[in-house]
Automatic annotation (TrEMBL):
Protein name: Ribosomal RNA small subunit methyltransferase I
Location within or outside the cell: Cytoplasm
Keyword Cytoplasm: yes
Part of the whole protein covered: 16 to 267 of 303
GO function term, MF aspect, one: rRNA (cytosine-2'-O-)-methyltransferase activity
Functional note: Catalyzes the 2'-O-methylation of the ribose of cytidine 1402 (C1402) in 16S rRNA.
EC code(s) of this entry: 2.1.1.198
Any single Gene Ontology cellular-component annotation: cytoplasm
First-listed, main subcellular location of the protein, grouped into a coarse class: cytoplasm
Native species: Bifidobacterium criceti
Gene: rsmI
Record keyword Ligase present: no
Domain Tetrapyrrole methylase span(s) in chain numbering: 3-205
Domain of life per record: Bacteria
Length: 252
């Protein structure tokens, strides 16, 4: 039997391509790429000859493609799954084939590497021991505000992906939902020549974005709730505690 291998690709700096990614690009029987032109452009930059058959595997066709690719895995092929940048499945295609491989009992593994989530989190200077990844915020203001208000009491560090054209509105909404004082980091162009991390309170970053609009790709990392933003947990009375203790004793 063959294997599905998810492989992370560079998020900006080609030198971040792992030796394992390069070997897989050369040797995999099939490369399932989010965008085949971008795959060949990466291979060119790395000076790698893609040895196997290349197929497109994007958001719109990946469910239909999964079984075909897995038939090849069952017949002994190594199928390499790559997205345009970073880790497949993280706001990128790849999950459909992972799920289907699990259902069919076929092997799936990962050649890990760059992903903007962890890069930004580690550089933010905010607590990394507990964090949550929220992907992209909703596009529309009303939904975005509803989503952010629901996250106001989240104690873990929160990571969002954002696009250039919505950054100013999103930070204004973050300020409205979380207040101006929460610490945050705006991490842009990670691993690239113009990498820049702006760290400060949400209100300061909002002003900095208005003064000097950031360009390129970006990740927002927001400090978790503390103080008044932490939701109150209902205090248990003596009777309720005694009841819990009895139930615990029954269960054990
Ligand atoms: N699969 C990718 C990963 O593992 O990071 C994410 C793909 S998602 C479609 C693209 C988003 O990731 C961008 O809009 C941006 O928020 C973030 N991103 C990717 N590369 C980045 C970089 N070099 N610097 C900052 N953000 C980046």
């Amino acid at each position: 039997r063959g294997t599905v291998v998810l492989a992370a690709t560079p998020i900006g700096n080609s030198a971040d391509a792992s030796a394992r990614l390069i070997a897989l690009l050369e040797r995999a029987n099939i490369v399932a790429a989010e965008d085949t032109r971008r795959l060949y452009a990466l291979a060119n930059r790395l000076g790698v000859h893609v040895g196997g058959r290349v197929v497109a595997n994007h958001d719109h066709n990946e469910r239909g493609k999964a079984d075909q690719l897995l038939d090849d895995v069952a017949a002994g092929a190594t199928v390499l799954v790559v997205s345009d940048a970073g880790m497949p499945t993280i706001n990128d295609p790849g999950l459909a084939i992972v799920r289907r491989a699990i259902e069919r009992g076929l092997p799936v593994t990962c050649a890990p590497g760059p992903s903007a989530v962890l890069d930004a989190l580690a550089l933010s200077g905010l607590p990394t021991d507990r964090f949550c990844y929220e992907g992209f915020l909703p596009r529309r203001h009303a939904e975005r505000m509803q989503h952010l208000r629901a996250l106001k009491g989240e104690r873990r560090t929160i990571v969002f992906y954002e696009t250039l054209h919505r950054i100013a509105e999103s930070i204004a909404d973050l300020e409205e939902a979380f207040g101006p004082d929460r610490p945050m980091a705006l991490c842009r162009e990670l691993t690239k020549d113009y990498e820049q991390i702006r760290r400060g309170a949400i209100g300061e970053i909002r002003a900095s974005v208005a003064d000097d609009p950031p360009r390129g790709e970006m990740v927002l990392v927001i400090g978790g709730a503390s103080g008044a933003d932490v939701p109150e947990t209902a205090a248990l009375g003596v009777d309720e505690l005694a009841d819990l203790a009895l139930r615990y004793a029954d269960d054990h």
